[in-house]
Write a structure and sequence with these properties.
By secondary structure, the chain is α/β, with parallel strands linked by helices. It contains 8 helices and 15 strands. The strands form 3 sheets. A 7-stranded mixed beta sheet has the order 5-2-1-6-7-8-9, with helices on both faces. Helix 1 packs parallel to helix 2, helix 1 (10-21) packs parallel to helix 6 (162-186) and helix 5 runs antiparallel to helix 7. The longest helix has 25 residues, at 162-186. The chain starts with a strand and ends in a 10-residue tail after the last helix. It binds one RNA strand through strand 3, strand 15 and helix 8.
Length: 318
RNA sequence: CGCGGGAUGGAGCAGCUGGCAGCUCGCAGGGCUCAUAACCCUGAGGUCGUAGGUUCGAAUCCUACUCCCGCAA
């Protein structure tokens, strides 16, 4: 089977690698144009492009697809049997979807129809879900609305971060894509409608990264920290300085200050100790901070942080 | 030329209006103790990122370079 692959981030390059190593003929790779990125805003190729170049696969990087006749003709000329799309970052118009005779296959990192959209992995962690998965589907013009082919479920660890889950799912996605292609080749691939009971996982916004000590419960804050690690990190302020939390847990230890716990403000540091780290009062429990990052600094363990940046008991995060 | 921060003993930081290199922790040895991650004493460990310059004298001022990090995407 001849394949054209479309995708951009590392999640996609895992799928590309999987089908490449499974021996499928990859006619070409379509990925987003190189973007200025990182310190110095240097132009950086996407992970998918890097892999393609390594394997001498032709790369196409259209700035836009809609009304781009030249690009459509290029793809048509390749005569792919199937187009695999994984986190490409652009909406494909009908004319593209109709090119391959076996259709366009998409790998989506959720158990559809739950979490259609851009950030399914992040939202599954943010919402504290116990399980999620990967789904392959036949694409249609809607946003992740196509008929489903295969699905694989995984459980989310209590302390698992978006980054960790991301990595696991990208590998599973690759395997599932290969399996999907095999079944399509044999003509035994199932096709299931999604139904109407769907939910959407939109792109994450900047504002949601701020911890709301008044409204959020200990578990919600923990989910926020996990869910935004390593993408942007949940943050709060201490004495006017921005502080990011990278790892927190709900304290199971008994804290001595039981008596006053109800009269102090949420976000107050109850215990600050070089050995045990810091404990913070929340709406409904005590949060233990494990990994932290100050302004202009790198992330470090709470113990390291406290040596050079003393935090007093009764300091307040806000 | 996107903006900004930094490079000081094993770790995290202070010192930077130039004048013997410091703090917290860790580490080694000793002491106290039934005991300890607690406490007390002692000690080891740094050519202050690299190369030049200014100066009687530079971690501290100037110049170039290397590396690291945050924002931003």
């Amino acid at each position: 089977m001849k394949i054209v692959f479309m995708g951009t981030p590392d999640f996609a390059s895992e799928s590309l690698k999987a089908i490449d190593e499974a021996g499928y003929e990859i006619l070409g790779v379509v990925t987003n144009p190189d973007r200025p990125q990182g310190r110095g805003m240097k132009l950086t190729p996407s992970p998918v492009k890097k892999y393609a170049i390594e394997k001498n696969i032709p790369v196409y990087q259209p700035e836009k697809i809609k009304n781009n006749q030249e690009f459509k003709d290029q793809i048509k000329k390749l005569q792919p049997d199937v187009i695999c799309v994984v986190a490409y970052g652009k909406i494909l118009p009908k004319e593209i979807l109709e090119i391959p005779k076996n259709g366009c296959i998409n790998v989506h990192a959720s158990l559809l129809p739950k979490y259609r959209g851009a950030a399914p992995i992040q939202w599954s962690v943010l919402n504290g879900d116990k399980k999620t998965g990967v789904t392959t589907m036949y694409m249609d013009v809607g946003m992740d609305t196509g008929d489903m082919i295969l699905k694989e479920e995984v459980t989310i660890g209590e302390d698992e971060t978006t980054g960790e889950l991301w990595e696991r799912l990208s590998k599973i996605g690759g395997n599932l894509l290969v399996e999907t292609l095999k079944q399509i080749e044999k003509g035994v691939a199932p096709r299931k409608k999604q139904g109407e009971n769907f939910s959407v996982a939109p792109m994450l916004s900047k504002e949601m990264a701020k911890i709301d000590w008044e409204k959020q419960t200990a578990q919600q804050i923990k989910n926020l920290v996990r869910g935004l690690n390593p993408i942007m990190g949940a943050y709060t302020y201490l004495n006017g300085k921005k502080i990011k939390f990278w790892k927190v847990d709900i304290a199971k230890e008994e804290i001595a200050a039981e008596g006053m716990i109800n009269i102090i403000k949420n976000g107050t540091v109850i215990v600050s100790d070089l050995k045990d780290g810091i404990f913070v009062k929340t709406k409904d429990g005590i949060l233990k901070i494990l990994e932290i990052q100050g302004e202009n600094a790198k992330k470090m363990s709470i113990q390291d942080f406290l040596r050079g940046n003393p935090i007093q008991e009764f300091d307040i995060f806000e």
